[in-house]
Amino acid sequence: MRVRWALEEVGQPYHVRLLTFKAMKEPAHLALHPFGQIPTYEEGDLALFESGAIVFHIAERHAGLLPDDANARARSIAWMFAALNTVEPPIFDRALASIFERDEPWYEQRLRALEDSIRQRLEQLSGRLGDADWLDGAFSAGDLLMVSVLLRLKGSGLLDEYPNLSAYVARGEARPAYKRAFDAQLAVFIAASTG
Amino acid sequence: MRVRWALEEVGQPYHVRLLTFKAMKEPAHLALHPFGQIPTYEEGDLALFESGAIVFHIAERHAGLLPDDANARARSIAWMFAALNTVEPPIFDRALASIFERDEPWYEQRLRALEDSIRQRLEQLSGRLGDADWLDGAFSAGDLLMVSVLLRLKGSGLLDEYPNLSAYVARGEARPAYKRAFDAQLAVFIAASTG
């Protein structure tokens, strides 16, 4: 979704290639992605991995995802790293724990600890966002990644504790490019589920 | 260390400002870093946070940390994101758990799970590096961040299981710029500890 969304924001066409979990661990894919994950990105001779790097590559080559002003551009890149390195880790850990540690005797205690970490980040992010629409001026690749990270919290109730963050995420989802990416992703999911 | 090392690689002078843990949570610092962490970076009117974004900013403005070829540059940026988003999280979690979860009922099991995750990443990274000196051609900001992430494993014994990664880290530490950064950081530490 992150890469699709970025491509839709800048109006670049793309072709999607789906992979089975098995194929992700095979040599052909490991040549593209050393850690056997998705997404990867191919454009001519270039093969990239890491969604942050792919979104940055798209943002650097096409107008619409990074500001022209050099300082504003650097700050937008800082928000890209912050979304992936500072905000996402406890959110990702919570998702993993809720799958793999659900039956452990310590599950409730660990879940509370992870949710405390998430709340601390959300509190700080909420404070910084205030009543602005986006994190630093106009919508940028930093917002794209931050919204996509916060979307992982849907259904957890955690986002509802911070009305300005809920509104921020809703603004992201309301963008036409997000909707096009979501619809395209959903179509693939439905086709794969029924095919 | 990451920012120091980057500045030493490109030969830019810098001034260090130390912070107490208390000052990190105060409004003056939160204005620079929304999540109340270090490092931050100031250059004229620009204030940045997130070590990945700071290293990238330095690498983009000065020769020596990113290749000139556009595709090689994009791949180097992918390794920056990979170091921070894919390799570091389980290494960081292990360090945190060994401090804060040592007395929890889940500690042994969680430590084993984290070390399995770390080994999986190291195995994949070792496979990709092979017998090359650096991850993709010449030393770049991707190597700088990857070596700095792997250095967190010193003393764990985990790195010793992958001789080519141990040698890779040693090559990083042997760089004159790394040594200058390390010596400068150590001098600050000694001064702060005895002052």
Automatic annotation (TrEMBL), chains A, B:
<dbReference type="InterPro" id="IPR036249">
    <property type="entry name" value="Thioredoxin-like_sf"/>
</dbReference>
<dbReference type="InterPro" id="IPR004045">
    <property type="entry name" value="Glutathione_S-Trfase_N"/>
</dbReference>
<dbReference type="Pfam" id="PF02798">
    <property type="entry name" value="GST_N"/>
</dbReference>
<comment type="similarity">
    <text>Belongs to the GST superfamily.</text>
</comment>
<feature type="domain" description="GST N-terminal">
    <location>
        <begin position="1"/>
        <end position="66"/>
    </location>
</feature>
<dbReference type="InterPro" id="IPR004046">
    <property type="entry name" value="GST_C"/>
</dbReference>
<dbReference type="InterPro" id="IPR010987">
    <property type="entry name" value="Glutathione-S-Trfase_C-like"/>
</dbReference>
<protein>
    <submittedName>
        <fullName>Glutathione S-transferase</fullName>
        <ecNumber>2.5.1.18</ecNumber>
    </submittedName>
</protein>
<dbReference type="GO" id="GO:0004364">
    <property type="term" value="F:glutathione transferase activity"/>
</dbReference>
<keyword id="KW-0808">Transferase</keyword>
<dbReference type="Pfam" id="PF00043">
    <property type="entry name" value="GST_C"/>
</dbReference>
<feature type="domain" description="GST C-terminal">
    <location>
        <begin position="69"/>
        <end position="194"/>
    </location>
</feature>
<dbReference type="InterPro" id="IPR040079">
    <property type="entry name" value="Glutathione_S-Trfase"/>
</dbReference>
<dbReference type="InterPro" id="IPR036282">
    <property type="entry name" value="Glutathione-S-Trfase_C_sf"/>
</dbReference>
